[in-house]
Amino acid sequence: MSKRCYYDVLGCKKGAPISEIKSAYRKLAMELHPDRNPGDTTCEAKFKEINEAYDILKDEQKRAAYDRFGHAAFDGGMGNGHGQGGNPFDFAGSFADVFEDIFGEMMGGQRGAKRQNRGGDLRYNLSISLEEAFNGSKAEIKVPTAVACEPCRGTGAEAGTSAETCPTCQGHGKVRASQGFFTIERTCPHCQGKGRVVKKPCKTCGGVGHVQKERTLMVDIPPGVEEGTRIRLSGEGQAGFNGGPNGDLYVFLSVEQHPIFQRDGHDLYCRVPVSFVTAALGGSVDVPTLDGGKVPVKIAEGTQTGRQYRVRSKGMPVLRGNGLCGDLFVEIFVETPCKLSKAQKELLRQFEETTQGCQPECEGFFTKVKAFWDGTATKH
Ligand SMILES: [Zn+2]
Ligand SMILES: [Zn+2]
């Protein structure tokens, strides 16, 4: 039996970004979902196939292994002497996991009753300043989550007692009732399908097994993060049910606007005003840098508004880029003086009389305009 390539199954190219794989999967899953195709075994088989493929390709580690070794990475056939058939990946419960990811909210929550459930993922929105994105920082966040109740260790039964097998269903979680010729099986009403009942509920959690707790977590924000960067805190999401693993906590970062610097990827932009005298004569201006320092930038004689100067490596650090940084672009704008005194105006008028040949843009423009009015420009 030969298996189809996982990429072919989802109709994606080998190097496709995860977003593409996710959307290809989502599209196929909607089409092939058993609820939409009741009784269609071909669809069911295909649905299983795309789920298997997605389960591997959505996971960076598994995908890398698949890219390298193909299906052999997961069939346990690669003996490497580690005594586990060489398969470093655990697939238990992964289908449920995928299912929950995509369909959890669509299908209205719980489907089967008695099974191990991974706890839900949590999202935390964290707003940071551009300086914090530049330097990296540590943020303390408080997350309200359901955690396993300590006194009863999540069982819901008071300390010293334990949950007992449900007397109604003898632990099966289901009961049968005869109706005429038929025997109908339904979820046990006594234990709601759990198979166990708590006689003496834990006082702390009231028998639920979970309590809401505010936990304080430290989030390490590495230098170079951007708007929308996600930081995953593995296992810090909601507690799992029936011994299932905890969900993850995702911290979504948003970076605030800065009054002086604008960011574009790894580069920073800073608009700096210079006096028209400096612009005309040339000079030097101190330009601020995001690390809190400054750097002198030489302004050339005759600098116009819009001219950019590049200061290398004074931009944003590249995330996990080993000290690599973008550049700082300094955009000059020339400020026209205002609120002039009489004497100053007189000086400027005298100056104006001497400017023949000093303002090529103005002179060139009017030459063009004159040609336009004369109709000579259109002949060429
Ligand atoms: Zn029961
Ligand atoms: Zn408890």
TrEMBL record:
Domain CR-type, residue spans: 136-214
Subcellular location: Cytoplasm
Residues annotated for Zn(2+) 2 binding in this entry: 166, 169, 188, 191
SUPFAM superfamilies for the chain: Chaperone J-domain, DnaJ/Hsp40 cysteine-rich domain, HSP40/DnaJ peptide-binding domain
Listed GO biological process terms: DNA replication; protein refolding; response to heat
Highest taxon, organism lineage: Bacteria
CXXCXGXG motif repeat intervals: 149-156, 166-173, 188-195, 202-209
Pfam name, any one: DnaJ_CXXCXGXG
GO molecular function, one term: unfolded protein binding
Record-listed Zn(2+) 1 binding positions: 149, 152, 202, 205
CDD domains: DnaJ, DnaJ_C, DnaJ_zf
Residue ranges of every copy of the J domain listed in the record: 5-70
Cofactor: Zn(2+)
Zinc fingers classed as CR-type: ranges: 136-214
Primary site of residence: cytoplasm
Keyword Iron: no
Keyword annotations from UniProtKB, A to Z: Chaperone, Cytoplasm, DNA replication, Metal-binding, Repeat, Stress response, Zinc, Zinc-finger
Coiled-coil region: none
GO CC terms, sorted: cytoplasm
Co-factor binding comment: Binds 2 Zn(2+) ions per monomer.
Role played: Participates actively in the response to hyperosmotic and heat shock by preventing the aggregation of stress-denatured proteins and by disaggregating proteins, also in an autonomous, DnaK-independent fashion. Unfolded proteins bind initially to DnaJ; upon interaction with the DnaJ-bound protein, DnaK hydrolyzes its bound ATP, resulting in the formation of a stable complex. GrpE releases ADP from DnaK; ATP binding to DnaK triggers the release of the substrate protein, thus completing the reaction cycle.
Family listed: Belongs to the DnaJ family.
Domain statement: The J domain is necessary and sufficient to stimulate DnaK ATPase activity. Zinc center 1 plays an important role in the autonomous, DnaK-independent chaperone activity of DnaJ. Zinc center 2 is essential for interaction with DnaK and for DnaJ activity.
SUBUNIT field: Homodimer.
The protein's name: Chaperone protein DnaJ
Organism: Rhizomicrobium palustre
Protein encoded by which gene: dnaJ
